[in-house]
Amino acid sequence: MLETLSNEPRDYAWGSPSAIAALQGRVPTGRPEAEVWFGDHPGSPARLGDGRSLPEARATAGEPPLPFLLKILAASSSLSIQAHPDLAQARAGFEEEEAAGIPRDADDRIYRDDNHKPEIIVALSDPFRALVGLRPVPETLRLLDGLGAAGGVERLRTALAGSDASAALRGVIDEVLSGRADDIVRDVSDAVADAAVLGFEQELDVLRAVVRDFPGDAGIVVALLMNLVVLRPGEAVFAPAGVLHAYQDGLGVELMAASDNVLRGGLTPKHIDVPELLRIVDTEPGPAPLLVPAREGDGEVFDAGVPDFLLSRYTLIGDPVTVRLGGPAIVLAVSGEVAVAAARRELTLTPGAAAYAQDESSVTLSGSGVAYLAQPGRSA
């Protein structure tokens, strides 16, 4: 089976009012458009061209839910700082909250399902900016040296100066998110307003935007501790379990395990469970986890090494490209005009449009444009 797949944009407040519309070649709605979900996740299931919802189609065919969720994401301001549990943590947390009788749609519910949520994002815009992982502490101390000597800034500098970097970062995150370091939040917010630190120009630009959009939020300090990643089109970053991340601005293709388990760490009015976040978060500092694609045949493969998903990119300029499938697949066009063929059917996709293939051993891509293909991972 090969069918078109479509969905309506999600209007989260951080979404861009124009980026997804521009990609799809239509007039903006006037509302923020943050994400378009291509998958069968119950939060926003996509629909096939024959009118059925994707969950309905898979259930009718006796198929389980998809293990992945593909999205177009467009941010004009920061998403919440967040981390996701690993599979064992998700299963244990879900069972505990189920046993406690916490409704799955409750504001303070953390584990809404029993799955993990590793995710990758590939930039479509130039640039796409994201905060991912905790920056090495010596670099953060160099940034702080340019923020002056206000009491809260000095207190933060002292707290980070210990020999155990991971423990120091964990302690700072605990203090600020638990409300015991309002002086640090205030003084850091004031200091970044007109600071100029060589080599940290874009970091300060992001922090000023965060202070503007989330005044007084403890996540301002968490954001200061994180790596800023500036992606160019086709570049990707991977957020595995436990790694703090917050996309800042830009348009991208996102692929993740099909889950809604999120532990927040600031820049949000939503519930933050500090003890649970600290239990699952990885506070070991280091560079951001960039994901470099490998050239395989006619495409480039972004393999995060998880069983739930595999993402490939195909730049079509000449001969058709046949892609072998290891399960259900979604093809998303992001530029030009892409033809997708399987068995006796062919569909033509324009940018921002998608097709769904089920029970097909392969699809053939042709035309002139760029397409992304999502399918289960190799170890699935």
Low-confidence stretches: none
- Number of H/I helices: 10
Name of the CATH class of the largest domain: Mainly Alpha
The CATH superfamily name of the largest domain is: Phosphomannose Isomerase, domain 2
Biggest β-sheet strands, sense, barrel? 10 strands, antiparallel
Mean pLDDT: 96
Give, in order, the helices and strands. EHEEHEEHEEHHHHHHEEEEHEEEEEEEE
Strand percentage? 25-35%
Percentage of residues in helical conformation: 25-40%
Query: What structural class do you assign from the helix and strand content?
Result: alpha+beta
Number of domains: 2
Features:
380 residues; alpha+beta; Phosphomannose Isomerase, domain 2; Jelly Rolls; 2 domains; ten-stranded antiparallel beta sheet; 10 helices; 19 strands; globular
